[in-house]
Design goal:
It is globular, with a radius of gyration of 22 Å. A six-stranded antiparallel beta sheet has the order 4-11-5-6-7-8, covered by helices on one side. It has a four-stranded antiparallel beta sheet with strand order 13-14-15-16, with no helix packed on it. A three-stranded antiparallel beta sheet has the order 17-18-19, with helices on one face. The chain has two domains: 140 residues, Alpha-Beta Complex (endopeptidase fold (from Nostoc punctiforme)); 82 residues, no CATH class. Helices cover 13% and strands 33% of the residues. It has three helices and 19 strands.
Length: 276
Amino acid sequence: MLIRRITAMTLGVTLAAGLGLSAGVGATVAGAPQAAHAASSVGGQISRDEIMSRAQYWYDNRGSIPYSQSGWYRDQGGKDYRTDCSGYVSMAWHLSASAWTGNLGKVATQISKTSLLPGDALNSPAEHVILFKRWINQSTGTFEYYSFGSTPVKIATDTLTGGSDGLIDSHPASNYVALRYRNVIGSGETPVRDPWIADVTGDGFHDLVATKSDGSMWLFSNNYTRDGATPYGDVRQIGTGWGNYERVINADANGDGFTDLIGIKADGTMWLFSNN
């Protein structure tokens, strides 16, 4: 086909070092937290980006922070917080003191679980609290979260109903309520931009792929029959670092029947990300 010949010729001339640097588009890659906005004051307004950055700080230093209800560890600014689940959320929210699961509701508003955004919390008042990180598939209630219920701080995945055992992080899912810190600012939602159509999953149905301003890439998969005539409800992040490309083109560059991606950088180099 003429289009494929032109694409192959262009790749042969300009791809250069990009050959061999391929990544399967269908593989899920967890994105790093976005850079935090200007630092908040203790107990003051705080952005969702900063909450996630603070949570990640303890996660990155988890080898030095053993779980203890009588222990303490500093935040980036040197303020100490208790090293347990509620102390961890207190640190992420930059509270003036370490709260506990029974009184976190005094600094937060209860919301519906399906409205959770990065930096919100799921709190079981008599037992445990976790910090919501992101939706993996909101239509099925699958999400990722930070937890400090034991050593070390961890990132884990679950569903709002707790899956087959009905538990979220070893506690009954039905006991959790969703909380939003009253001083959080920002929606936490980054809109997608420049979506394009491609059968990424190879099932014969057109999917949507889009990037966000933070460089993350998202797949909105579509199987009209499987999804009960409701396409694009299965949403998941499939990559990071796409902010380095001025333009992304979808094409079956290697002729294997699957849609590949070609990224073009500002310096004119072209990079192939093959997909099978």
